[in-house]
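Contributing new records

If you add data, match the layout below exactly. Sequence lines come first and carry their own label; structure lines follow with theirs. Keep one chain per record. Anything else will be rejected by the validation script.
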Amino acid sequence: MKELLVQAFREVLRSLDFEAAVREGIARLPDAPPRRVLAVAIGKAAPAMMAGALASPWNIERALVVCPDGTPCELAAGPHLQVLRASHPLPDARSVEAGARILQLAESTTAEDLLLVMVSGGASALACAPHPGIDFAMKLDVTHALLRAGASIVEFNTVRRHLSRLKGGGLTRAARGPVVAFLASDVIGGKAHDIGSGPTAPDPTSVDDARAVLQRYAPQFASLELVPSLAASDEAAARERHFIVIEPELLAERGARALERAGWSAKVLPPSMAPVSELADDYARLARSLAPGQAVVRVAEPSLEVDPATAGRGGRSGHLAAVIAPRLPRDVAFLAGASDGADGTSSAAGAVVDAAWAAAVDPSRRAEHIARFDTAALHAGTGSAIVTGPSGVNLCDLHLLVRATTSSGAA
């Protein structure tokens, strides 16, 4: 069963076509092709999304791609196409350079040009442009504080938008003419302003909203200087259109279809951003209630409060798998995988476990790794780690929970 779950997970990742999503999105626009287009793609799916734009009939005169280290990119860089690498999940000096280059590209447009923007998961860290009242070191301090305190991605991005010249519609402000954005959402239930912290989209949140997040999670920064983001009523907002072309729910739908092809009857559960502990309780209950041959699938972005200063290597998928394993019936298997191929600070996408795996691991050893948030070594040493490498996909995490059929003991 575990091997079949890993095969299904890999099949799902291969089925997601970001290039086609952009190409088809452009084809659906009713406008005539613009005379001149300048294009920028930011995120883990940036190379594929830019490939879709370059395959369209539009005349893309200059293009800039910003993606993480290790992300596959087959685009041929040259005078008209630049490919930059930057850091994720935490920004670095290259992220600041990328942010400056993106803003320069937007500022070089004229009122007759179109700025085409493609945003996917990871964009917030890959491109940074702190406003003049905050330096990069301070922004990193805020980022670390929010991560340690367990702020949700929506709360995190609310603060990011009000610290930036790029995010919160800053890119639209910088452009001289119309802006069209195609977005691949990595936020469950997220709106355009949540995806990559909304570099093109009007922002319904305010400075007060961002300050409230800081007051809750990082009160030491509550008095930090914040700036207004692009409001829907601003003149520049009228020049922007955005389209969400891929959403996290697609991951669960494809996961269910893959399991059905492997012989299970699969049900898609509602997406979740619940804490890992709550999801573990939920899956333990579901595992006991599944009939033979049944499966449940969910896309999730679990919260896990971790102190980077004391934690080991690992991520929320591997952590969840280690927690749930001893609570699984003997004929049930569970997979938790990060769609981008990078589960936290581990080198794996996640882990696949069952009761036999739990029985083979010393309970005190497992408990120690869980307590130290150091599950990467645990899974690597016991064969439960799923290693895919950077996938060029970022649509949250995929969870698969299956029960064997009665006929063979495995589906």
